Amino acid sequence: MRIRELRQAIGLSQEALADQAGFARTYLSRIETGGANPSLDAIETLATALQINVESLFVVSKETLE
Description:
- This is HTH cro/C1-type domain-containing protein.
- This protein is an all-alpha fold.
- The protein has 5 helices and no strands.
- The radius of gyration is 11 Å and the shape is globular.
- 17% of the residues are buried.
């Protein structure tokens, strides 16, 4: 998932996004690093907090594939 990339692009800290989503910062950190597998509800909550649709969390850019 592209949570870290999207969060940084809009200038949010982990703490700020975690607060908006109602998560502990440590849980968000684990999601960003692949240490936690979020539920669909958690993914939807993060998308809402980032003001994007869920699909945008999974879109891979061409640069990522190269």
